[in-house]
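Components:
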Amino acid sequence: MELKNKKLTNDEFFKEREEVLRQWPTGANLSLEDAAEYLKKVPEHKNFPKKLRYAKENGITLAQPRAGVALLEEHINLLRYLQNEGEADLLPSTIDSYTRQNRYNECEVGIEESKKAGRSMLNGFPAVNYGLEGCRKVFEAVDLPLQARHGTPDARLLSEIIHASGWTSNEGGGISYNIPYAKSVPVDKCIRDWQYCDRLVGMYEEMGIELNREPFGPLTGTLVPPSMSNAVAIIEGLLAAEQGVKNLTLGYGQCGNLVQDVAAIRALVEQAEEYFRKFGYDVYLTTVFHQWMGGFPHDESKAFGVISWGSATAALAGATKVIVKTPHEAVGIPTKEANAAGIKATKQTLNLLRGQRLTESKELKAEIELIKAETKCILDKVFELGNGDLAVGTVKAFEAGVLDIPFAPSKYNAGLIIPARDNNGAVRYLEFGNIPFTKEIKDFNRQLLEERAKYEGRPVSFQMAVDDIFAVGKGVLVGRPENMK
Amino acid sequence: MELKNKKLTNDEFFKEREEVLRQWPTGANLSLEDAAEYLKKVPEHKNFPKKLRYAKENGITLAQPRAGVALLEEHINLLRYLQNEGEADLLPSTIDSYTRQNRYNECEVGIEESKKAGRSMLNGFPAVNYGLEGCRKVFEAVDLPLQARHGTPDARLLSEIIHASGWTSNEGGGISYNIPYAKSVPVDKCIRDWQYCDRLVGMYEEMGIELNREPFGPLTGTLVPPSMSNAVAIIEGLLAAEQGVKNLTLGYGQCGNLVQDVAAIRALVEQAEEYFRKFGYDVYLTTVFHQWMGGFPHDESKAFGVISWGSATAALAGATKVIVKTPHEAVGIPTKEANAAGIKATKQTLNLLRGQRLTESKELKAEIELIKAETKCILDKVFELGNGDLAVGTVKAFEAGVLDIPFAPSKYNAGLIIPARDNNGAVRYLEFGNIPFTKEIKDFNRQLLEERAKYEGRPVSFQMAVDDIFAVGKGVLVGRPENMK
Amino acid sequence: MQNGKTVVIGVIGADCHAVGNKIIEHALKENGFNVVNIGVLSPQEDFINAAIETNADAILVSSLYGHGEIDCRGFREKCDEAGLKGIILYVGGNLVVGKQDWKEVEKRFLDMGFNRAYPPGTDINISIKDLKKDLGIE
Amino acid sequence: MQNGKTVVIGVIGADCHAVGNKIIEHALKENGFNVVNIGVLSPQEDFINAAIETNADAILVSSLYGHGEIDCRGFREKCDEAGLKGIILYVGGNLVVGKQDWKEVEKRFLDMGFNRAYPPGTDINISIKDLKKDLGIE
Ligand code: B12
Ligand code: B12
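Structure:
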């Protein structure tokens, strides 16, 4: 496969398309023209890009849940409940894990078993199996913009189906839906498949239909340092833009330290826009802030604390939307009531904070500068490795461990960096692996961790990272040693 | 009555004491010496002043619920539940409203009715009726410091009983437990009665027993501008210090705008300490932040949002403790489970934020300066009216409307000022009544409200205050007009 | 735009919650009622005396603090004794201690002789509509 | 401080949750086990092959993403067929979709032939204690 960061030609795209549509029977007879017609009739209030624009221009943070179950009727009920009772601003359809692995046969089993058991046996909505017909039913049953949220390395057929069904946004990206979600999908393969998904959106854009694309910011959701996730977000944004994506939402998963989280969002926007300008892409950029993506506390009241603090941070950061967790997070897929509860706590917090932003301070400024400087080290090297080609550079960067996602399952990920929190709870680099930071940056990260080590009376070590992984679930941000509790 | 801000003499105190102890049979035979002995044996972990010191020195914010029921056994169960399941750091005993009005006969009825009904018919724990014996039982049954929380204009007997029972803190003050809680208790009478309560604490201090005192910061809990509540807090702090109180917690009720709330706490500490220095009082000062004290949303998930945002603000402000609301707030006295849920959401938030503070910014600085300047205008006038005597000045200031608490029931309160939120949700003065602000301050308040008026397309008016009263209950901070929702 | 009707309002018992009371006064006045507000911390007698003195058409009792059940007992009977037979009695607020089933709570207060009882957080405009209906002015 | 026992660990089915898996490896090693980690996204066959190849004493199956019920069916039978009769099988994680009564869920997995099943968020050190007991090394 010859990978390049270059807009797919029509020839390339349509040839590939034939193959894609044959992957499962519901792909047959999908027509771009028919889809375009359908999409043109999507009313304004069900249009993802439009609602995001409105929010950005009015300084509002929108709330979006995750939600998906195996059976069509149940799925529709769930979404309507989250819309009407939960007061969601945007709706998802979270796709089940078999679909994510393109195992549509197993989805059939899951659907059948769910019917028998009278409860969902799948962890999401198997959109490909339901096809255009089912997905349009979902779209027509709700009154809010609809997005596919998944974790699918090869989402080409899924993307074809959901966009043709009026779903005006698609989450994912060639890195972010591979490295955290797969074990043995080659980096180039997945980037190439997501070029297809992005090009599909570009096609629609050229037909006058704006669709939103959202790379998955939080990656493994587990102590990912902001500069690493921002680097990946910017890469995926640029790759998408090259394929013609114009309405883009870049994401970030809460780490927990307010200044760092706000700085991360601010740095992301500023730096992404610099790159878009530099490469001449015309992109309407919005942001998504994910409430804490790591292990949650089991106690539901405590979960509400985590959810609300995430909402408050999203508002203070001025994110365009926030992805909502639920009081059931630590245990299992939430009931519709628990899901709605998460949204309501979120909305209450967002509304109390509407218009409030974290005020400028030297700490905030310094953190923004640090994140940008770290991100730039990484991105410079990626471009260098690719000889200017971002797609090639990305593949090589993963090989070299220049891009390296902590705790990721992919065998194409070096897994050499280790993150840990500093004494204020900000996530720093404990082991740098092959990340090409300047000595200054490395020393600064180290110094911050040494401060924590001193405070805790133990050496800087992997045990800190382990303790930090469990910390939020146990009710604190920083994983202190036993004797300090 | 001749009121003066002067330490009561032993003669005055003990003469009055005889009368106080005769107010209800449980007052008989209370002995200061016996009490002192008992208090000296209070272990460190059940000592309010000690735990507050620890928290202040370690930058921790402690969580304290409100809780009280009619029957002794039930009350003990409740407190133990909040301690063990709720993970409270400090315990209260909230006193019922008949006791607050010294209607001990009605308490008896309430206790009897509660036994019959099998549920608490009183909104708190009738400590005076249970007397030393009952109150010591409560103290001995728990493992955390214990405080009386009430709203009693004449709390002299109550204070005698609770301190003698090992309760190492007492909430209240001559203004804050009168103007928001009573209709026709004269200002001088209540200040005088609280001088007694403070002197009692001073007596214990002189016997080497440190007790904590906490004026009630939030007053009516309803859009009280920070400078007004800070002025009252500082006055009550000074009055208490004169009587020999040494461990003092000054309070503030959340308004909802982060910068204003943090500024209020910071201004309170800085300014109170200036005054203590000026008058030569040696006071160990801590702070208490009250989660939103106005009308709550009925939906429990939304209530969690309000609770958590209050906790986050308390942490970011660096308050020594936070008073916790519950998901049942809008409806009724919480069950023990709902109460524990509120504490757990609070603690999770506090722990995530441990050590994090709102960073310095020009907005924060400006807000601190504004609150201090407003507070100083008020306090200068109070001292002037009293010819240098703070107690006399306070009485005259209420007569003159120089001290004026919004929405207070007391007929001794002028009720001329009207507060409303500005466009960022900070509480400002809409009508100044007789508050002696400089023209500059008045103009600035007005300008901020005009900005909101312009944004909302309606004139600055009382209707804004009315809308703001309902806003948080309806899920937002600022009460916008119907057509903007 | 006076509607000619007089209403006594107040907060019963040892209850100091003043905010709702001020809002109710404001709303009733806006609706053309003559309002006699006896304020917070008011015993039953004060409501009754005010109603007699002003020849009131209705009494709206607020209780927020939880002792409503004790404080309101015998109110209807006292009204009857005082010659206020048939006067319209409403009660509202947070009437009982704790989060209880509203249907049961409502029944308790209707059994006490109140014409209507309202759950926590009732929009006062809804009650004003009921009041106008009950007074036959709308 | 090797204890001489070999354990195969992995995450079954289409499940990508890697963090707990890495933690379990870390904890087992600290406790002296020889750990064979087949990682995430592992079919039943991979567990069984690894166990045969390494002559393992136990298999610890993780399932976090909710499809555990489907993915684990017939695991015991496949072990038996492959000649791993009596091998110790544990399963843990977020085994089923949603917040379900644990006693019922546990029963389902014990009925499937697992020796022990653990609810969401189990402290791995507790399971390691059980494992040592079951292996007779403590
Ligand atoms: C981080 C995370 C992710 C990351 C994972 C990154 C990665 N590659 O590892 C990302 C964001 C990618 C992700 C994706 C998804 N996730 Co996820 N995720 C989580 C989360 C928040 C934390 C998991 C974690 O790392 N915990 C920390 C580790 C240390 O703990 P642990 O995994 O629980 O493991 C410990 C114990 O359980 C025990 N243990 C585990 N296995 C075993 C086995 C044995 C034998 C024993 C004795 C003990 C044991 O020991 C471990 C170490 O201490 C959980 C919810 C939570 N727990 O708060 C949801 C959760 C597991 N995810 C869930 C789901 C559904 C998904 C998705 C389908 C997407 C979605 N709907 O949002 C996809 C799955 C895609 C796929 N193909 O698998 C659900 C599962 C629901 C259910 N079972 O009903 C959960 C519970 C969230 C929820 N409530 O909806 N997720
Ligand atoms: C602000 C407040 C206070 C302030 C009051 C200041 C003041 N003087 O007004 C302070 C802090 C002083 C206070 C004190 C106490 N409070 Co308080 N307070 C509140 C709070 C948060 C808001 C009340 C409010 O102002 N709402 C806004 C107004 C506009 O709404 P409203 O009062 O509900 O009134 C509206 C409607 O109910 C309706 N309505 C009211 N009456 C009537 C009557 C009729 C006939 C009709 C038709 C309609 C109607 O119309 C009104 C206008 O819209 C409520 C909880 C809540 N609602 O969120 C607790 C609450 C009322 N308080 C409560 C309690 C227990 C107390 C205390 C005993 C202390 C304590 N345990 O913490 C003391 C009482 C002392 C005393 N002697 O009364 C409890 C009552 C519990 C119960 N019933 O089971 C509540 C519900 C909180 C709780 N869940 O524990 N409180």
